[in-house]
Backbone:
């Protein structure tokens, strides 16, 4: 169920769209602000603002490299880096 929710979030699918027998009307979304990063690859640093077609690096990260959608969000990476830094400071000699 968790994976389904992540995929729905990634593909911008709402529960209402799943329950509808007719195609959902196209949603009008505004373009992201310049410099906005919705997803970032934690190793290569490649980014995507969420506008337009999904880039190949994102598909590869999710389907072949085993990353989860949440792991590619900059907020997750910042939180993870902060936790790692705290753990390193707690270690003796660090």
Residues:
């Amino acid at each position: 169920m968790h994976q389904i929710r992540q995929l729905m979030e990634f593909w911008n699918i709402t529960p209402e769209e799943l329950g509808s027998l007719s195609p959902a009307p196209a949603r009008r979304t505004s373009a992201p602000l310049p410099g906005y990063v919705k997803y970032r690859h934690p190793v290569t640093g490649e980014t995507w603002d969420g506008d337009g077609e999904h880039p190949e690096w994102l598909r590869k990260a999710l389907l072949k490299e085993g990353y989860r959608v949440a792991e590619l969000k900059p907020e997750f990476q910042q939180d993870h880096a902060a936790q790692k830094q705290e753990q390193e400071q707690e270690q003796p000699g660090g």
User: Anything to note?
Assistant: Helices lie at 2-10, 15-19, 56-63, 74-90. DSSP finds four helices and two strands in the chain. Strands lie at 39-40, 47-48.
